[in-house]
């Protein structure tokens, strides 16, 4: 590696750290307060809420109704100027649903946008959980009447 390449990589590393700091500030200002709000609400309605280990540039939240029925909501840096949110739903006897991912620039990722991501993820989970329960109830009824 020549001197220019070494200097270039040092500057790139410095720039990445600055953007990582921007994500960490976003997480502190918007994600954590929104999570606290939804954690309290869902815990009061039978959910077990956890924050599995996260690494810099990523925040992971788990809202579970059962051991095999939960939603994972992950906020992460998508690029130097964007945040990505991934919602992964798991339902007993069905398994994992296709993850839903969206992103926004840090400029557009406001407190309101962040709360909406938690709302959408929880809504997707409870809808999928309810639909799976309805299908299981129909199967049980078919077995009983057969």
Protein described:
With 146 residues, this protein is of the alpha+beta class. The protein has one domain. 52% of the residues lie in helices and 28% in strands. It has two helices and six strands. Strands 1, 2, 3, 4, 5 and 6 form a six-stranded antiparallel beta sheet that branches. The longest helix has 41 residues. The protein is elongated, with a radius of gyration of 20 Å. The termini are far apart.
Topology diagram in text:
Blueprint: H1 3-43, E1 48-50, E2 58-66, E3 69-79, E4 82-91, E5 95-96, E6 100-105, H2 111-145
Helix pairs in contact: 1-2
Output the keywords.
six-stranded antiparallel sheet, 146 residues
Total number of distinct structural domains: 1
Discrete helix count: 2
Number of strand elements: 6
The computed structural class is alpha+beta
Major beta-sheet overview: 6 strands, antiparallel
For the CA atoms, what is the radius of gyration? 20 Å
* pLDDT < 50 stretches: 140-144
Beta content: 25-35%
Order of helices and strands: HEEEEEEH
Task: Calculate the mean pLDDT score and round it.
Answer: 89
Alpha-carbon distance between the two ends: 74 Å
| Overall geometric form | elongated
Helix content: 40-55%
